[in-house]
Amino acid sequence: MYRQTDIIEDNRTTPEGEFVINVGPQHPATHGVLHLVITLSGETIKKVEPHLGYIHRSIEKMCESLSYRQFIYVTSRMDYLSAHINNHACALCVEKGLQVEIPPRAQVIRILMDELTRIASHELWWGAMAMDLGAFTPFFHAFRERETINDIMEETCGARLTMNYMVPGGVMQDIHPNFQKRVKDFIQLYKKKIHEYDELVTGNVIFQNRMKNVGILTADDVISYGCTGPTARGSGVSCDIRKIQPYEIYGKLEFDEVLETGCDSFARYLIRIREMHQSIRIIEQLIDNIPEGDFQAKTKAVLRLPKGEFYTRVETARGELGVYIVSEGGTTPYRIKFRSPGFSNLSVLDHIARGSKIGDLVAMMGTLDLVIPDIDR
Amino acid sequence: MTKEELKARITELYPAAGFDDTGEWLNINIEAKDWLVLAQQLQQDDSLHFDYLFCLTCIDWKTHLTMVYHLESTQHRHTIVIKSKLDRANPEIETVSHIWRTAEFHEREVYEMFGVNFLNHPDLRLLILPDGWEGKNPLRKDFEDPVNMIRL
Fold this sequence. Notes:
Distance between the termini of chain A: 25 Å
CATH superfamily of the largest domain in chain A: Cytochrome-c3 Hydrogenase, chain B
Strand order of the largest sheet of chain B: 1-2-5-4-3
CATH architecture of the largest domain in chain A: Orthogonal Bundle
Helix content of chain B: 10-25%
Oligomer: heterodimer
Distance between the termini of chain B: 50 Å
Strand content of chain B: 25-35%
Number of helices of chain B: 3
Largest sheet of chain B: 5 strands, mixed
Order of helices and strands of chain B: HEEHEEEEHE
CATH class of the largest domain in chain A: Mainly Alpha
CATH class of chain B: Alpha Beta
Structural class of chain A: alpha+beta
Radius of gyration of chain A: 21 Å
Structural class of chain B: alpha/beta
Strand content of chain A: 5-15%
Strand order of the largest sheet of chain A: 1-2-3-4
Number of strands of chain A: 9
Number of helices of chain A: 16
CATH superfamily of chain B: NADH:ubiquinone oxidoreductase Nqo5 subunit
Number of domains of chain B: 1
CATH topology of the largest domain in chain A: Cytochrome-c3 Hydrogenase, chain B
Order of helices and strands of chain A: HEEEEHHHHHEEHHHHHHEEEHHHH
Shape of chain B: elongated
Largest sheet of chain A: 4 strands, antiparallel
Largest interface: A-B, 45 and 37 residues
Number of strands of chain B: 7
């Protein structure tokens, strides 16, 4: 057992002849400040011990002194690749407490934004994941499409990454007049280019060899470790909150929950690729059917939630995000808890990495799709 | 199962349970000392089958702490919330990390943020906070950060 500072000072060999090394906190494959202390016997991994907190801002404590309108802005900084969906979860939770009806226009805009975010997040993951395994080209292909989405976001929300667009009662402002046209252009672009993804990476023999049978995660372990999102669905566990507890209008939309039964890194990879197609399907159903009307319900300037507890679950690009608000009837939450998908997904890393070679660790971390600010909060 | 059916089955297993169904899900108040036995039953009982612990956290009520466990069954799709009051000066509860593996990390987080001692936890030490934070529990209500970003 090592304290964090001890281990940074020197690497060492244990009495059993095992070698202890650090990966991170600054390592290109950790995509942020994740620090793993790895015990090795030769090249075989004996133990992976995550040391977290390099980007811990105690968002939960901060939220206790922010009002119900203000705290949502902080949550964009948790999982910055799913900023819209984080905001959506918080807005839903506050609305549950206030019991306000959301105008249909706002509901549709929210879903469109969520699904665009999901595609953008998976695009970034795909590029970064291929880069971790040594292929640099896919990164540029992924960013070509992702930038298009960011441009659409910028036009409507004013920001490219931390949007803060969803507010209790609806969305902050109406969509930009160009929005529908640009989203349709994006769908065209996506459909024209998506086959390149499969040609470049999915079908590549070297890539498949590095992914198949790497990081085996059984369905029982998925549930026990609380893994969600594509990580869980790669092991055939149905856990899409959009299907099992539909929120907003997801219940009325046609899309499939993508499941694979490979249980390995390649299955988790395929899930994300196929999920992008489903998101496109959802967007196509909605883009020409945005109802007219208000984009925000009328709410009081100062929001007060009744005494009680409110919990919402939404599906982010990484899995299930839970927002748990405990209210004492005041203008700020008494206690707020974010159940982040990355935190639980990371906890399984030690389990799946044991016994495999250190070179495969990158593939495993890549397919868990870890976003560090989401884990540390 | 509906809330009423859940109530009936859980009363059979644990007659001392206190129910509160004002919320979205059924809330069950239990004694901390009975938690380990009940947790095993909740997970293993075929009609309940609570195999997925999706949220584990703690609330500081200034007079006492409350542990909150959100449980779901992936098979039956029903949800319950287990709550247990803990003494604020000496908070102790049995770990459930061997029943639901996800609890291991979540309990470490609660340990450092609230100072709850999880008995028989395999690896109870700081996870998110850096060294030197032992004994200081930032999410407790009486913790004041000398550098408060909100009030700056």
